[in-house]
Write a structure and sequence with these properties.
With 347 residues, this protein is of the alpha/beta class. It is 28% helix and 25% strand. α5 crosses α6. It has 2 domains: 168 residues, VC0802-like; 153 residues, Rossmann fold (3-Layer(aba) Sandwich), CATH 3.40.50.
Length: 347
């Protein structure tokens, strides 16, 4: 039997399909939030506007969950039965219309359960290699429609890369799980919590962070939760509970003029500013090695300038940051998240 045609599939936020196509200069939109391209090496496809990749994915179409699970199991066995390594299985849906999400998510859960049972019955040895943890060869099953699933088995990547630093990333659909926190002073906490998941490693207790443009304190709140000591820089005050927190030092300064007295472990920056100012700040901080790691938002007004979204990569490379990435993450709006580490761990 000839092998089914395979494509690299990319998940992007709804409305950013055109941004991804423009960045890549190729491909076509399959459906909302889903773009397909001819396969290329993964080192060439870590696009800014792609949250996840399903390398060399094939489409499987069957009308019922049972038949779909059988068909996916057959293709999976053909591709993974000879792999003598742990296997990680992700079954998920993309960023579909919220009205369709509950039914499709429930169907994906049923598909995962049925697929796992089929593998246990048909290939017990393969079933035993399925792991709950992040390690192992990544198997992705995207339920794009009730009767259409895309299967991808990534045999090219490292078996146990850092959770968020690999490509593909190791959280389903490229959506890092961020718990709801009703104690946070603003919903901005979601963006930094997600960004930390994409770093080479999470923050550690006792590290020092500078939060530029901190008010009302959503990002400072996340840093404090990680046990960090935070210098929060903003002309406006933080939420009262953060102003009184022993690990927070509020500094009333212009974020663009603040310089720490010595290098810090983290810079986090969610300043609302034109791209030129944010890029200049990034260049100044990284050229002088004022921080070992950073998370910075590059914000846009009106129509997105896709080329500017990639400019931080050149700045970070010139400054010698070993881990450098720019991503439009799940909680981002008209902005991209710049991620960097001077001496990355595990990458």
């Amino acid at each position: 039997m000839p092998r089914a045609l395979s494509l690299d599939l990319f998940l992007t936020s709804p409305g950013f399909e055109t941004a991804l196509l423009a960045e890549a200069g190729r491909g076509h939109t399959v459906s909302t939030g889903l773009v397909a391209m001819e396969p290329r090496p993964l080192t060439e496809t870590d696009y800014v506007f792609a949250r996840q990749v399903l390398p060399e994915a094939i489409a499987v179409c069957e009308p019922s969950v049972e038949r779909l699970a059988d068909a996916v199991a057959t293709e999976l066995i053909a591709r993974a039965d000879q792999l003598e390594v742990p296997l990680t299985l992700h079954v998920f849906v993309g960023d579909v219309d919220h009205r369709e999400m509950p039914a499709l998510s429930s169907r994906a859960t049923l598909l995962e359960r049925t697929l796992t049972e089929r593998l246990r019955f048909r290939r017990r040895r393969l079933h035993r290699r399925l792991t709950i943890g992040p390690g192992g060869v990544l198997i992705q099953v995207l339920l794009a429609e009730p009767s259409v699933a895309w299967l991808s088995v990534d045999t090219t990547g490292a078996p146990s890369p850092p959770i968020g630093a690999g490509w593909p990333v190791r959280f389903p659909a490229g959506r890092a799980s961020v718990p709801i926190d009703r104690t946070a002073p603003s919903t901005a906490y979601l963006k930094l919590a997600e960004a930390f998941a994409w770093m080479d490693r999470p923050p550690r207790a006792g590290e020092v962070a500078v939060d530029l443009g901190a008010s009302p304190g959503g990002w400072t709140h996340v840093a404090v939760q990680h046990g960090m000591r935070v210098i929060s820089v903003d002309r406006a005050p933080l939420a009262p509970e953060l102003m009184a927190h022993p690990s927070v030092a509020h500094t009333v300064r212009d974020a663009f003029r603040f310089h720490p007295p010595e290098p810090v472990d983290w810079l986090v920056c969610d300043v609302i500013a034109a791209p030129d100012r944010s890029l200049a700040l990034l260049s100044e901080w990284t050229a002088s090695r004022r921080t070992r790691r950073l998370v910075l938002h590059l914000k846009f007004k009106g129509e997105l300038d896709y080329g500017r979204a990639q400019e931080p990569l050149a700045i970070l490379a010139e400054s010698g940051y070993g881990y450098r990435r720019v991503k439009h993450l799940y909680h981002d709006k008209n902005e991209v998240t710049v991620l960097a580490s001077l001496s990355p761990e595990g990458v």
